[in-house]
Amino acid sequence: MVSYRKSSSGKHICDKQLELTLEEKDIIPSEYQSYPYRSSGFMEARYIDNYPIRNMLVKLKVRRRRWEITINSKKRNK
Fold it and tell me: Do the beta carbons of residue 61 and residue 44 sit within 8 Å?
């Protein structure tokens, strides 16, 4: 978890909203560790609406890393 933010939800059921930001760690997947690789930023963030916590709507913001991997002299993005 990288950060969180509380704000007004604009809804009448739950008047507050909690947004949690989750980022993938900078650890390459094990099946690609034997190839030359580098992290090249993040993919577009995805938002997931979740169950209310303590009368607040919950939204998860998930950011996955983008990897550049060289296999047989060809770059592949994962």
Answer: no
Note every long-range contact of 42-48, with CB atoms under 8 Å and residues 24 or more positions apart, other chains counting: 42/66
Bridge partner list, 26: none
Other C-beta atoms closer than 10 Å to the C-beta of 67 total 19
Picking from 26, 28, 25, 17, the residue whose alpha carbon sits closest to that of residue 60 is 17
Which is more confident, 78 or 35? 35
What are the pLDDT digits (tens) for 49-67? 988 888 889 999 999 999 8
Structure tokens that stand for 11 in this block: 């809804």
